[in-house]
Amino acid sequence: MSSPKVIDKRASTTAVDELATSSRRLSLPKSVVAAGGLVKWNAQVHHQELTAMVRAMVTAKTKEEAVNQVNTMIALDHHLWAYLYMRMLMDKDLDLAFSAILHEPAKLLPIMYTPTVGEVCQKFGMLPLFARGCYICIEDMGNVRSVLQEYAAAELPKGEDGKPLCDCIVFSDGGRILGLGDLGACGMGIPIGKLDLYTVCGGFNPHRTIPLIIDAGCGDAKENTAHLEIRGSPHYLGYKKDRVKHRSEAGTLVNSAYYGPTSIIRELMTAATDLFGPRCLLQFEDFNSNDAFPLLEEYRTEFLAYNDDIQGTASIAVAGLLGAIKLKNPKEKALIDALRRETVLFHGAGSANLGAASLLINEGKVPANQIFITNSRGIIWKSEDGQDGSFRNDEQKAFACVGKPNFDSKSLESIIANIRPSCVLGAAGVTPNCFTKEVIQKLVEVNKDDDSQSRPIIFAMSNPKSQAECTAEAAYTYSEGHAIFGAGTYFDPVTYNGREYAPGQVNNVYIFPGVSFGACVCAAKTIPDRFFLIAAQAVANSLSEEDMQLDRVIPARERLREVSLEVATAVVLEAQKMGLATRTLGADEAEVKAAVKALMWEPGKPATFGIPA
User: Residue 613: its pLDDT value, please?
Assistant: First the structure.
C-alpha cells in the first residue's frame, strides 16, 4: 500500500520558519501574542540568554554527535538541560533529533516524556518557546476553525489537493498534568511529549500531528500540588484568568466552556474533522477527572477519539496484570481466565484506576465483587438503594461495593487484612510512599497461604517518580522478594538476596502509540474499549525470556517500537473483525503486520509521508 502523491512542504531555513511563525496570531498563547509574537517572547530578558545558550550548545550534525552531546548532560543528571537540548535539536533538524532518539530510546524517551516532562511543565513558561504547538483560548470560542486553519497553514505539510495533512491531534487543557495538578497552558509539554512517543514508538509522521492546548484559564497556587504561582507568574504564557466552572448534575465541579451544543470541545472536534477528515484521531490528555469521563462519553462514538488517561492507562494496567500472571505461572496460557481469579484493590479513584476497573469488569469479565477502589474517604461503598455512600461522583458510584465496611476502611493495612487482595494498584497521585513497609508486609501475609497467589502484585502507577506509592527497592525489600512489582515511571534494577529484579514500567507508552496507529491506518470508525483489552493481551504476549527471568511484567523499553507494532497489528485485526475498519490491510496477521510496518514513519521520509487519505 503506497501513500498518495503529495507535495513535500518542508521548511528549509530558519528564516522561512520565522516567517511562517510570524504570521501566527490566533494559534499562539495569549501572553506570547501580547508580547509581539514568538520571536519577541524569546527575546525578553527572562528568555533571551537561555534561548541563546541552548541554541549555541546544539552543534551536532550527525546522529552520533547528537547522542554523545545529550548523553554528556544525562551523565551529570541534568535531565532538564538534556530536554532543552533535544527540543532545540528538533527545532533545528527534526530528522536528526528522531534519529538520535530511535538510536537510544531507553535513555532518551524518559528525557522527552516522563519523568522529565513533569518539571518541564512546571517551568514551561521560563523555557525557550518553539513554534510547535497550537493554543486555542476560550476567548476564541466561535472562531476555533480559524485558529486551526492558521496553525495548519504555518506548520503542516499539504497534499497535492492543497489541503493540510494531519493524522492526529493530542489535546489537553492542562487541568491535571500527571500528578501535579492544574498548570494551565504550561501543560503543553504533555501533548508535545506525547506526540514524540507517537512517532518513536508508533510510527506517526511528526510533521502530520498537532499538539494542542485548550486554554480555559488556570487555577491559583492551591490548584497544583507544588503550590506554584503559575497564572500570576511573569513567565506564564497563557490566558491569565481563572477557570470558569459550575456544578454538574452529578455535583462535581466542571469547566463550563466544555459543555452544551456550542462548547469549545465540540467546536474543536468538528473543526478538526472538517479540516483534516473524519479519520483524524482526537486524543484527550490530562483533563481533570470531573471533565474527562463525561467528555469521553459524549464524543467517543461520534468521533475517532479516546482518553488515554482513562483507557490507555487502564489497558497498560491490565497488560501488567497479565504479565504478572505469566510470571507467577509461566505455563498459564489462558491469561484472561486467570485474571478473573484475582482480587484487585485500586488505591485512588482518579481516571486511571476507574478506567482500569471498568476494563477489567466490562471487557475482562472479572467479577465486580473482586474489585475494590479507595478514595480519600477510604473504600468506596454505597447503600443498597444507592442513596448513601462514600462515592464522590457517579463514576465512583458505579464501582462502589454494596454496604458500609465493618472495619477501618481508611487504613490500607486494615483494608488489605479484610479484603485480602492479590493485586494492589496505586494511582492516587497525591500520596507518595503510602505503600509502607507495614502495608507491603500485610499484603504478603494475606497471600502466603494461597499457592496460586503466593506472589502478590504491587503497581505504583503515579507519575512523576516523586509521587510514586513506593519505590522498587521498597517493594522487593519489604516483601523479601515475594512481590511482583511494576511502576508508572522507570526504576533502576534492584538486587535482592542475590537476584536481580528489573521492574516493568507499567506505562501507557506501550499502549497508546500502537492503538492510535492501528486505528488510524485502518481508518477505524471509532475506538471501543475492546481495542484496549486486545492491546493489553498483545503487550503481555510480547514478554521475552529475558523479561521473565528479570521479573519484568512489561517488555523492556528497548523493544517499544516492536511492541507497538504488535499492538497496532492486533488492533487492526480486531477492527476488521468487528466491522469498524473502513480500510482493509490484509487477510491474516502476517499481511496486516507488513502493511502496518510499511506505513511507519522513519527519519529521512518526506514530511508528507504517512497514512493514505
Answer: 80
Q: Is the bond into 115 cis (omega within 30 degrees of 0)?
A: yes
Give the 3-state DSSP-derived string for 444-482, with helices as H, strands as E and coil as C: HHHHCCCHHHCCCEEEECCCCHHHCCCCHHHHHHHCCCC
pLDDT digits (tens, 9 = 90+) for 500-521: 999 999 999 999 999 999 999 9
Catalytic-labelled residue, pool 30, 83, 85, 113: 113
Distances (CA, A) of 181 to 11, 288, 430, 490, 533: 37, 8, 10, 21, 29
What is the reported pLDDT for 450? 65
Q: Is 194 a catalytic residue?
A: yes
User: Per-residue pLDDT tens for 276-298?
Assistant: 999 999 999 999 989 999 999 99
14 C-beta neighbours (distance < 10 Å), count: 11
Dihedral sign (CA 111, 112, 114, 119): positive
CA distances from 2 to 6, 200, 205, 598, 612 (A): 12, 21, 15, 8, 7
Which residue, 270, 20, 258, is CA-closest to 144?
Answer: 270
Average pLDDT, the chain: 93
Q: Does 40 qualify as catalytic in the annotation?
A: no
Q: Which of 359, 370, 363, 257 is nearest to 311 (CA)?
A: 359
- For 534, the grid coordinates are 486486545
Report the pLDDT value the prediction gives residue 463, as an integer from 0 to 100: 80
Residue tagged 494498584 (cell numbers) = 425
pLDDT at position 198 over 50: yes
Residue 365's pLDDT is: 97
> Closest Cα to residue 312, out of 270, 273, 351, 276?
351
Tell me the CA distances in angstroms from 147 to 32, 144, 172, 210, one per residue in order.
15, 5, 16, 12
Q: The dihedral of CA 607, 609, 611, 613: what is its sign? A: positive
- The whole-angstrom separation of Cα 593 and Cα 585 is 9
DSSP letters for 20-66: HHHT-SSSS-HHHHHHTSHHHHHTSHHHHHHHHHHHHH----SHHHH
Among residues 30, 63, 194, 245, the one annotated as catalytic is 194
pLDDT category of residue 45 using cuts at 50, 70 and 90 = confident
The C-alpha cell 501475609 sits at 445
Give the Å distances, CA to CA, from 444 to 422, 448, 488, 585.
9, 6, 21, 47
Q: Cell 476564541 maps to which residue? A: 140
Distances (CA, A) of 450 to 346, 456, 461, 477, 588: 21, 10, 26, 21, 41
What's the length of the chain?
Answer: 613
Retrieve residue 345's grid coordinates. 484493590
Residue 65: the pLDDT is: 98
pTM listed for this prediction: 0.92
